[in-house]
Design brief:
Order of helices and strands of chain A: HEEHHHHHHHHHH
Order of helices and strands of chain B: HEHEHEEEEEEEEEEEEEEE
Helix content of chain A: 40-55%
Radius of gyration of chain A: 25 Å
Largest sheet of chain B: 5 strands, mixed
Strand order of the largest sheet of chain B: 5-11-10-7-8
CATH architecture of chain B: Sandwich
Helix content of chain B: 10-25%
Structural class of chain A: mainly alpha
Radius of gyration of chain B: 22 Å
Distance between the termini of chain A: 85 Å
Number of domains of chain B: 1
Mean pLDDT of chain A: 90
CATH topology of chain B: Immunoglobulin-like
Oligomer: heterodimer
Distance between the termini of chain B: 60 Å
């Protein structure tokens, strides 16, 4: 009798001591979960609420992005990179299209734009049939999958100076930037995604990925205005080999580079006409590297 | 009955005091700091390291014209010493010792199209620097698990690029890659507290260790971890040697 009482007391005591950390852990994750379900998003003067986006997500997004947002929806298995990149894993909180520096979270506006725009050369559809409110709610629901959106703030969007006038000098200068920072290592000297490193490129999850081909008339995933293209190489596409050049290209030079990239693209443009007039040749991959 | 209650009461007190002691480790000041030294060796034949084909980039081929670059997953010195092993204190450091941050800035260089050093160790929150000595463009792309709190980033470093300065939030073995040169492969070894990396002979010294009893962990990228217990006396040097077995 005595023995068993002591044994019981000991057992209870041990249980109490060991469960203390468990209790606080459980509380933490519940609090974390609660704050995730309360996730909001703000685009313009519209506020989105995660729970209001859940139904649309379930109906329209889950098949690809998965119930848990981990990118493993039912049809994800049919996506075959590099030509068909896999749906994004939202739990990681890593996004391609950002106005914010590499390594930081995108703004709500960035996610809103990505959803509205869709992704060319991928299975990600254009979702511009949703109302603005519905899309902002979806942004909040997308964010709720990643603990990062609870613990971190989005990065500060980069500043894009006003776009200057396109001139022959600028297109020529842009070619020099393309040569100096060696975009051609991946994109190729003619922009055909056939640079010396193109064939071995992999994304952060070890899947093959193709560099962007400027010459075949496809739309950049993160938008195709001049501002979008400026933003793409000054922030990088996180989760992919496409790095940020923010430390290596000055804002004014960045515009020169945008103009040169336009001259590589298939669509007729002022830049393309200028390059033709000047007889601009592709950069020489064997020229000694000019330093900054 | 009474004795049982007494027993439980005494036991509870003991547990409580033990918990309090754990939370409130004695404060130690820097004066009596000791160190942990030792050698890490490889037992058995060193695994074959593949040669690197750098023909993607003529600059890299030229830069290595007088050497035969090899993978560096396992680097063994003349006397069997293992290079690039990271040593750190995995148990026993007080909160105040952990709070002490080194002001040195470890440097990771991209030189002749390889990372030097191959493994860069650092403390959580410690600033480190990535430089390039090369006349070809690299992109520096660490790939941590974002669930740890460490967030991946990817920055280009063309010739003459300014250094990139960063730090990491959580302990993790972070793989570093260059997508332009797929053979480039290195590590950021992020640990909590003082650390050391073995030299070409497998020797190491962890400095600034307050007196106490510790578990030292040795980490090697291919062989994993090993641990040893040491006792550091005030101003003294404790010794911990490790041997990894190659299969």
């Amino acid at each position: 009798m005595r023995r068993s009482l002591i044994r019981w007391s000991l057992f209870l005591l041990a249980a109490a001591v060991f469960s203390l950390p468990l209790v606080s852990w459980a509380q933490l994750t519940k609090a974390d979960l609660d704050s995730r379900l309360k996730m909001e998003s703000h685009v313009g003067n519209i506020t989105g609420h995660a729970k209001d986006g859940a139904a649309d997500y379930h109906r329209y997004c889950e098949g690809c992005h998965g119930v848990r947002g981990d990118g493993n929806g039912e049809v994800a298995q049919w996506f075959d990179p590099p030509n068909f990149p896999k749906p994004r894993d939202f739990q990681l909180g890593i996004f391609k299209c950002r106005s914010t520096p590499t390594g930081t979270l995108p703004t709500d506006q960035d996610l809103y734009d990505a959803i509205s725009r869709g992704f060319d050369r991928s299975g990600m559809p254009i979702w511009n049939t949703f109302t603005k409110q519905e899309r902002v709610d979806l942004v909040a629901w997308v964010k709720h999958f990643s603990p990062r959106f609870v613990s971190e703030k989005p990065g500060t969007a980069i500043q894009i100076p006003p776009e200057p006038e396109v001139t022959a000098e600028r297109v020529k200068a842009g070619r020099e930037v393309f040569a100096r920072v060696q975009c051609w290592k991946c994109h190729g000297v003619t922009g055909e995604a056939n640079g010396p490193s193109a064939s071995t490129l992999q994304d952060d999850l070890g899947r093959p990925i193709a560099a962007f081909n400027f010459t075949e008339g496809s739309r950049p995933k993160c938008g195709d205005t001049d501002q979008d293209i400026y933003r793409i190489f000054m922030t990088g596409l996180d989760g992919t080999p496409m790095p940020s050049f923010a430390d290596n290209i000055k804002p004014d030079e960045a515009w020169d580079l945008v103009f040169y990239l336009r001259s590589l693209m298939r669509e007729p443009s002022k830049e393309k006409a200028i390059a033709q007039q000047l007889g601009l040749k592709p950069v020489d991959p064997n020229a000694p590297a000019p330093t900054q | 009955m009474k004795t049982q209650y007494k027993f439980v009461a005494v036991l509870s007190t003991v547990v409580l005091i033990a918990c309090a002691a754990l939370v409130h480790m004695p404060q130690v000041n820097a004066a009596g700091e000791g160190k942990i030294t030792g050698t890490v060796k490889l037992d058995g034949p060193p695994p074959h390291m593949k040669g690197i084909d750098m023909s993607k980039d003529p600059y890299c081929v030229k830069a290595n014209a007088n050497s035969t670059p090899k993978m560096e997953n396992v680097v063994v010195g003349a006397s069997g010493g293992l290079e690039n092993v990271v040593l750190y204190i995995s148990e026993g450091l007080s909160a105040s010792a952990l709070a002490e941050k080194s002001t040195t800035i470890p440097v990771f260089d991209q030189k002749n199209c390889v990372y030097t050093p191959h493994v860069l160790a650092m403390d959580v929150g410690q600033t480190f620097k990535v430089e390039t000595s090369d006349q070809t463009a690299h992109n520096i792309h660490p790939n941590p698990n974002p669930m740890t709190g460490n967030i991946p980033w990817n920055q280009s470093q063309p010739p003459g690029a300014p250094p990139v300065e960063k730090s990491w939030k959580a302990p993790e073995w972070i793989e570093v890659k260059c997508n332009i040169h797929p053979w480039m492969h290195g590590w950021f070894a992020v640990v909590k507290g003082p650390y050391a990396t073995t030299d070409a002979n497998g020797n190491y010294t962890i400095n600034n260790v307050p007196p106490g009893n510790y578990t030292v962990t040795a980490w090697q990228e291919q062989f994993g971890t090993q641990t040893a217990k040491v006792a550091v006396a005030a101003g003294g040097a404790a010794k911990a040697d490790f041997t990894f077995k190659s299969k």
